[in-house]
Task: inverse folding
């Protein structure tokens, strides 16, 4: 049995590279129920992985106006409340911006060959748009709708108005020129939640506050001592892939 | 360009391909294995912590097939236009060395004896009139007793953890009372019950059912397998399904078989090799080899071989048979032909219990193959006579490790807000205090549910996509509803604060947007007659005798159990008969 693992994180090209050394305690200690160290990880030489990440950093893909839409809409989907900060403070808009320049954002993970034909909803997505196109067209459609219905762009409305608009989009009765607004809403909801709950290396889940909300311990990934503790709460906070603790 | 001739060419580097490659090398035959995806090694990309990034893993499909290159089209009924499956969701085929065997969970079952001869069994117990007219109910043509040595062999390669009930007819432990007798115990003791599984075990017992530890190809202890390859003890990290197991605890072709072949000079693995077709001689009775696209050089190449093994994922095997002209394509209107016939899936619905606020279910703890199941309503373990449907479902708590993005998408249950005010409250309560219970059931074969080539859409290689015509049928919906009804007493015995039962509804159509399972089956089934099966009982093409087709494509109907254990046993069964009979005298193993 290995007693210590020391590995570099392998991060594929195109993603933020962090190096960390992560140690797991010896197996005999891991089996001890109340081993005092966090059971999966201790970090040496932690880096300030997110020091460079600013919530108002200039978006790489979105225009400032588009980004303002994202900040407002993400915040409606995952709001700041008594449970903790909302999606914007957690960096979900930054996450979405960065995702636009990945194979996913460019539609390289979807079958994008024509012909494109409408069909019943249960047969799935049938539009010729990659995620980055969905956002560009969807944000334009949403702002147009907001101006027509409420006299201002989406980001300039009250949050109450914004929520009403997103609720209408979710309901499926609103159509943008290129797509049903519901499709755009579902894309936005999905990516917002991804941003809140994915590892901070991707730009969201700032200070792991998404994971803290759930009591998800992140990259600890070693629960030999916690297979069955008769319903006791797991006692350790999250660790990120780069070895940071909350 | 044509490569050096080989004795055996194998298409696909998943479980079926790896098993056949090992067996053919033991028989002294040279083997070329073609894999469309990249090479994958646990020691490289499967390491901690890079491999456990949920976004890159289960969400962005690091180990799954990329549909951008090739996918399928899907429709529910024969009069619809099938549309491309553009975004992976309902099922997740693998790509790269290991195939779906690298990202699977590890639940490792043996097929139930009755399920292997379901038509005969149903006819004997309930009469032939019990079978609906549009249901293509069939036998596999092989029995449990014939397969038993190969189930045993596979478990010893996979390092399977479990608890036997009977060995050689003697009760030896607290395993599944409905399971058939075994020739030996499991190679490893059962996985420990996670907290939620222990709650299920207790509640199911109180409800009068017979819970047992799921057989798991997750190593409960250090293990050295038949081939001298090592597995480490599972630490319940929760990254099985969709991931590659940095602990070397979940069985995969990559750690349990291929390391025994990689240094063998008569075994050649070619990756990034997309097979376009199996080449046949002029009268289509013999395969001469295969043609593939070398995706690195963007160049077509041909390998000539005496024996061609199709060991790709279920529907890719069927696709290749249709593209190559192996066997007669199925036509549902005239009810003739066999390739594409009996396409099946699995029913699965999830129910959920919310426990008290001082019970933390720690759902991130888990192992993909582990859990507690009950078979009281699986297979023909209960009297179907008064019920009027065929099939059944095991019910289980199989806590494979719930990650936060997946949890967030599901939110707080059916009645909770999906976003905005109230969303977090429901999500937090559900993540911290709930447990999920599945009814993971059978799916029968029907005359108008099948696979063929799509008339419109093509893959990036210019070949027609495979078309799936599939939806849920009343027999299976009624089966699911019956079994889910039997979960209610467990929910009550659990003392759940509240619960939701998940079930299929009457008239519900198959929805491609929501993950169900990757347990697709049939389309090139094994059987006893070339009129209703594409393969004989040794998984040999009836039409082209030097082609064997290994995979869940051979299942005539979808069983309640997970397929991999049966696929592995069928692979060893076919390999045994190739080794002992076919190689000495090539030709049909079943004469008509």
Result:
């Amino acid at each position: 049995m290995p007693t210590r693992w020391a590995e570099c994180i392998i991060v594929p090209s195109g993603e933020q590279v962090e190096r960390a050394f992560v140690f797991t305690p010896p197996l005999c200690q891991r089996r001890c129920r109340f081993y005092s160290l966090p059971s999966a990880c201790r970090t040496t030489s932690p880096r300030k992985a997110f020091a460079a990440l600013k919530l108002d950093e200039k978006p790489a893909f979105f225009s400032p106006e588009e980004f303002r839409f994202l900040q407002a809409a993400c915040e409606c989907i995952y709001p700041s409340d008594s449970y903790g900060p909302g999606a914007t403070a957690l960096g979900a808009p930054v996450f979405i911006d960065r995702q636009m320049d990945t194979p996913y954002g460019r539609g390289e993970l979807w079958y994008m060959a024509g012909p494109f034909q409408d069909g019943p909803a249960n047969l799935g997505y049938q539009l010729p748009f990659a995620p980055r196109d969905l956002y560009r067209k969807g944000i334009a459609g949403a702002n147009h709708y907001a101006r027509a219905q409420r006299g201002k762009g989406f980001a300039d409305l009250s949050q109450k108005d914004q929520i009403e608009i997103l609720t209408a989009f979710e309901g499926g009765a609103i159509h943008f020129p290129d797509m049903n607004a519901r499709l755009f809403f579902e894309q936005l909801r999905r990516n917002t939640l991804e941003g809140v709950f994915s590892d901070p290396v991707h730009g969201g889940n700032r200070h792991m506050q998404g994971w803290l909300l759930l009591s998800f311990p992140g990259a600890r990934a070693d629960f030999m001592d916690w297979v069955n503790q008769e319903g006791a709460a797991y006692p350790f906070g999250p660790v990120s892939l780069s070895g940071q603790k909350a | 360009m044509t490569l050096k001739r080989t004795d055996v060419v194998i298409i696909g580097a998943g479980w079926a391909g790896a098993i056949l490659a090992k067996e053919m090398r033991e028989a002294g035959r040279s083997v070329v294995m073609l894999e469309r995806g990249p090479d994958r090694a646990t020691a490289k990309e499967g390491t901690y912590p890079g491999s456990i990034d949920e976004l890159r893993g289960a969400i962005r499909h690091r180990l799954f097939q990329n549909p951008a290159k090739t996918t399928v089209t899907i429709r529910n009924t024969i009069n619809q236009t099938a549309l491309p499956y553009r975004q992976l969701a309902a099922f997740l085929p693998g790509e790269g060395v290991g195939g779906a065997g690298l990202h699977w969970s590890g639940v490792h079952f043996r097929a139930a004896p009755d399920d292997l001869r379901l038509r005969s069994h149903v006819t004997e117990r309930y009469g032939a009139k019990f079978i609906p007219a549009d249901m293509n109910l069939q036998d596999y043509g092989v029995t449990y007793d014939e397969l038993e040595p190969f189930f045993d062999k596979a478990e010893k390669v996979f390092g399977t953890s479990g608890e036997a009930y009977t060995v050689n007819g003697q009760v030896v432990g607290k395993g599944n009372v409905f399971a058939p007798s075994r020739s030996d115990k499991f190679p490893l003791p059962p996985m420990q019950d996670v907290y939620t599984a222990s709650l299920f075990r207790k509640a199911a017992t109180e409800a009068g059912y017979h819970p047992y530890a799921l057989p798991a190809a997750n190593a409960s202890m250090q293990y050295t397998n038949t081939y001298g390859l090592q597995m480490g003890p599972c630490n319940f990290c929760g990254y099985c399904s969709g991931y590659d197991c940095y602990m070397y605890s979940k069985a995969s072709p990559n750690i349990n078989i291929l390391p025994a072949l990689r240094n063998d000079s008569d075994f050649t693995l070619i990756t990034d090799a997309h097979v376009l077709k199996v080449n046949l001689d002029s009268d289509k009775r013999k395969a001469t080899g295969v043609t593939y696209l070398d995706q690195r050089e963007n160049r077509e190449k041909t390998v000539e071989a005496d024996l061609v093994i199709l060991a790709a994922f279920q529907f890719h095997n069927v696709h290749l048979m249709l593209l190559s002209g192996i066997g007669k394509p199925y036509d549902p209107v005239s009810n003739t032909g066999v390739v594409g016939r009996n396409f099946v899936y699995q029913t699965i619905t999830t129910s959920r219990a919310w426990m008290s606020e001082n019970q933390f279910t720690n759902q991130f703890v888990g192992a993909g193959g582990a859990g507690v199941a009950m078979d009281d309503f699986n297979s023909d373990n209960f009297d179907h006579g008064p019920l009027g449907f065929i099939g059944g479902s095991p019910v289980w708590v199989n806590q494979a490790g719930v990650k936060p993005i997946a949890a967030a998408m599901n939110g707080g249950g059916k009645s909770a807000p999906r976003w905005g005010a109230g969303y977090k409250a429901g999500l937090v309560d559900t993540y911290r205090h709930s447990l999920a219970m599945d009814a993971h059931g059978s799916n029968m074969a029907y005359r108008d549910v099948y696979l063929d080539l799509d008339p419109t859409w093509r893959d990036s290689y210019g070949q027609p996509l495979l078309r799936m015509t599939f939806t849920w049928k009343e027999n299976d919906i009624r089966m699911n509803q019956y079994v889910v009804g039997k979960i209610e007493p467990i929910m009550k015995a659990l003392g759940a604060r509240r619960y939701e039962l998940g079930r299929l509804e009457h008239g519900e159509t198959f929805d491609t947007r929501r993950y169900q399972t990757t347990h697709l089956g049939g389309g090139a089934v094994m059987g006893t007659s070339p009129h209703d099966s594409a393969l004989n009982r040794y998984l040999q093409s009836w039409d082209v005798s030097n082609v064997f087709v290994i995979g869940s494509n051979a299942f005539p109907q979808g069983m309640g159990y997970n397929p991999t254990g049966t696929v592995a046993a069928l692979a060893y069964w076919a390999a045994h008969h190739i080794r002992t009979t076919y190689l000495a005298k090539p030709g049909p193993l079943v004469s008509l």
Chain B has one domain: 6-582. Chain B touches chain A through 78 residues (CB under 8 Å). The mean pLDDT of chain B is 98.
